[in-house]
Amino acid sequence: MDPLIIEPGKGIGTIELGMSRQEVEACIQEYTAKYRKPSYSKNYFEHVFMVKYDEDERVHFIEIPSSLKDFFTCSFRGMDVFNTKAEELVAKVDEISPYDRDDWEVGYMYMFPALGLSFWRPNIFKEEFLQEEWFLEMHPDIQEDEKKHLYFESVSIRK
Question: Count of alpha carbons within 13 Å of 117, Cβ hemisphere only?
Answer without folding.
Answer: 24
